[in-house]
Amino acid sequence: MTKAExxxxxxxxxxxTKSQTKKVxxxxxxxxxxxxxxxxxxxxxxxxxxYVSKRSARMGRNPRTGEKLQIEAFNLPSFKCGRxxxxxxxx
Length: 91
Description:
43% of the residues lie in helices and 30% in strands. The protein contains three helices and five strands. It folds into two domains: 1-39; 41-91, HU Protein, Chain A (Irregular).
């Protein structure tokens, strides 16, 4: 499902216009990204939790040349799905 398809389906379910729905979805996603970027966890009961995983620095290898290289530490946005979401997917 694309973002446009999501907007269309949410607009149908809520009775709002597509432009209103787009604004709400954009604002919600931006708020979640800002909170996770600030190191906060964002959780929705039954759906899941967005959080930051920290990856430490390590040695890697270029698969073409075999040359060793240093991979720097970085933060990775992550998501852990909730129980209700898991159950719905596994029906």
